[in-house]
Predict the structure.
Amino acid sequence: DGGITQSPKYLFRKEGQNVTLSCEQNLNHDAMYWYRQDPGQGLRLIYYSQIVNDFQKGDIAEGYSVSREKKESFPLTVTSAQKNPTAFYLCASSFTENTEAFFGQGTRLTVV
Amino acid sequence: KNQVEQSPQSLIILEGKNCTLQCNYTVSPFSNLRWYKQDTGRGPVSLTIMTFSENTKSNGRYTATLDADTKQSSLHITASQLSDSASYICVFMIKAAGNKLTFGGGTRVLVKP
């Protein structure tokens, strides 16, 4: 199946711990994105990458880090510096910035 | 500041009825406007994509319209089905922001039998 896969679907983390969310796509897309979704709010861009080994900060990058070592993969690390990490995280990919973005199924992160 | 406001925040309709969701915007200029459907706990799925010069686009029972004069877009759902229960999000690709996507907060639709 072609698509974009996020794992895990649910993730629990203790306060003070770093955690990494996985995002893999086999659509041959160059661009990949991470968004955060909070209840009643629009999606907010955390990081994006237009090409392998390159990525840019989005609107709310503080407390997050990413890597893009392979075209297919764009993992997001939520660090202990992120003050309010409990949220629904969505990964997306597209051929370029101008083309349609396809979203993964999301990871719900809860800090306990 | 680029703003995208959706209304109503939530909506309950009976199966088989029509409904219209609104999206008011101040973003300008934009490359395209998208409407997404998001089931609870899932990722958004694209319904329609419209360029600035288009004023209507359909996808089955979903029809999106764009009025550049009033800076309003709407999504009309015809003959609603239980599976239409979801959040609907309007999204603008903004040229001045390097073609970044700006999302509305969504309208949650519940279709009841």
Summary: Chain A has no helices and eleven strands. Chain A touches chain B through 22 residues (CB under 8 Å). The longest strand of chain A covers residues 44-51. The two ends of chain A are 35 Å apart (CA to CA).
